[in-house]
């Protein structure tokens, strides 16, 4: 801060030489003349002095027989004098400093550190809910209170702290170890997510209502979370795996002649200036042609510090409609290749092809596969307990 005040007022870096140079330093000290950054350079004394005190030094050096030489002029007064004929540049610089000082009272950037399982996006969303976001005045943030509120907002975090450094706020977090996988501990039934035939039942909690070999429809209750005894009724959170054989029909179709979208190779660019999350267009109109848009954001930085501004570039890849023709053999090959890709999502499941139908029409063809899967059809559904004032609802 002291250096900044000296820079605003201006100071000189001077060299003192002669036999009485040291005596001049002592005399200056006795007269209240402040010298700093004292040092020796080639048998000369080098020091810094304010503009006001330099005049006193200049008067003393004549009496002491000491040579005084100005080595460097430093500070705002000299810059103003140098550019006195370029008033616009000076005014612009002052305005820039004022704006920069004003913006420094706001949070420019939020960084999250320490998270592995909880996403940065989720943490930033929680920060916004508690009033910590890009553009908020720094004076509004109580870091201790905000950290406590963040932990209440995200139970998956064990610890958190907010550290403000300039216009950057860093959110440091530690996640809860061995987080439970189940989101709900409320009483639940297990229902069938698919229609099929039960092959295996492995239930650890709840009242099993079906047996191996039973045929069940989608939505049927497989395991009840209501356990009744002679004297009481107990509600539990049902857990388990119910494996069943399920039939599915996969269908794909295509045409011998199709109109597809094709990029022409021409690209038009449009830019936006982002300030605290608000996009300001730097263009008058968007391209009127058909196009596919891809966007990218570049943060502006000064001295490796992120500014509250970013440039958003939208690339418009111009497209046109083209007709593509396929022979019957080409279309068949494509449909079978696409069906093979569709089957890859069942790669960890036992799959059996029961039937296959390929039919051609005047305009195209259709491929159908009927497959059998051995898969877990258990789906948890929360039990709703009615109060006396609520109307009756169908039981799960």
Task: Explain briefly what this protein structure is.
The protein is α+β, with helices and mostly antiparallel strands and 396 residues long. Helices cover 23% and strands 46% of the residues.
- What does the largest sheet look like? 5 strands, antiparallel
Spatial sequence of strands, sheet with the most strands: 11-9-15-21-20
- Structural class per helix/strand content? alpha+beta
Query: Helix segment count?
Result: 8
Unreliable runs: 180-184
Number of strands: 22
Strand content: over 45%
Distance between the termini: 71 Å
Based on CA atoms alone, the radius of gyration comes out at 38 Å
- Helices and strands, in order, run as HEHEEHEHHEHHEEEEEEEEEEEEEEHEEE
Average pLDDT score: 84
Q: Which percent bin holds the helix content?
A: 10-25%
Net shape: elongated
Descriptive notes:
The protein is of the alpha+beta class. It has helices at 2-9, 21-30, 51-64, 76-82, 87-103, 120-129, 143-153, 328-343, and strands at residues 11-17, 35-41, 44-50, 67-74, 109-113, 157-165, 168-175, 188-192, 196-205, 207-208, 215-216, 221-224, 226-228, 233-235, 239-255, 257-275, 278-281, 291-302, 305-325, 350-360, 364-376, 378-382. The strands form six sheets. Strands 11-9-15-21-20 form a five-stranded antiparallel β-sheet, with helices on one face. A four-stranded antiparallel β-sheet has the order 2-3-1-4. A four-stranded antiparallel β-sheet has the order 10-12-8-22, with no helix packed on it. Helix 2 (21-30) crosses helix 3. The radius of gyration is 38 Å and the shape is elongated.
């Amino acid at each position: 801060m002291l250096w900044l005040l000296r820079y605003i007022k201006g100071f000189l870096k001077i060299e003192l030489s002669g036999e009485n140079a040291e005596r001049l330093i002592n005399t200056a000290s006795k007269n209240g003349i402040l010298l700093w950054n004292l040092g020796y350079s080639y048998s000369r004394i080098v020091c810094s002095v304010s503009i006001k005190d330099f005049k006193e030094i200049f008067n003393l050096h004549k009496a002491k027989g000491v040579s005084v030489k100005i080595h460097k002029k430093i500070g705002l007064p000299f810059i103003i004098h140098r550019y006195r004929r370029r008033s616009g540049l000076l005014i612009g610089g002052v305005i820039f400093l004022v704006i920069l000082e004003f913006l420094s009272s706001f949070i420019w950037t939020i960084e999250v550190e320490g998270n592995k399982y909880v996403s940065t996006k989720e943490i930033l969303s929680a920060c916004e809910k508690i009033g910590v976001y890009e553009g908020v005045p720094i004076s509004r943030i109580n870091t201790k209170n905000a950290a406590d509120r963040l932990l209440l907002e995200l139970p998956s975090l064990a610890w958190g702290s907010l550290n403000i450094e300039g216009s950057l706020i860093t959110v440091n977090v530690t996640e809860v170890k061995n987080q439970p996988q189940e989101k709900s501990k409320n009483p639940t039934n297990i229902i069938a997510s698919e229609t099929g035939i039960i092959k295996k039942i492995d239930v650890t909690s709840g009242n099993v209502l079906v047996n191996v070999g039973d045929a069940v429809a989608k939505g049927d209750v497989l395991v009840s979370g209501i356990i009744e005894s002679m004297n009481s009724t107990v509600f539990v959170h049902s857990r388990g795996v119910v494996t069943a054989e399920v039939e599915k029909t996969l269908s794909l179709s295509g045409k011998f002649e199709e109109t597809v979208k094709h990029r022409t190779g021409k690209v038009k660019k449009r830019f936006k200036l982002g300030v605290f999350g608000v996009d300001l267009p730097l263009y008058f109109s968007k391209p009127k042609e058909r196009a596919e848009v891809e966007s990218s954001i570049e943060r502006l930085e000064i001295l490796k510090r992120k500014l509250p501004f970013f440039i958003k570039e939208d690339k418009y890849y111009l497209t046109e409609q083209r007709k593509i023709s396929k022979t019957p053999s080409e279309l068949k090959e494509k449909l079978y290749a696409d069906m093979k890709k569709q089957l890859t999502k069942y790669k960890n499941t036992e799959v059996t092809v029961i039937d296959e139908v390929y039919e051609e029409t005047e305009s195209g063809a259709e491929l159908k596969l009927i497959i059998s899967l051995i898969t877990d059809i258990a789906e948890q559904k929360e039990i709703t307990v009615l109060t006396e004032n609520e109307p009756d609802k169908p039981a799960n």
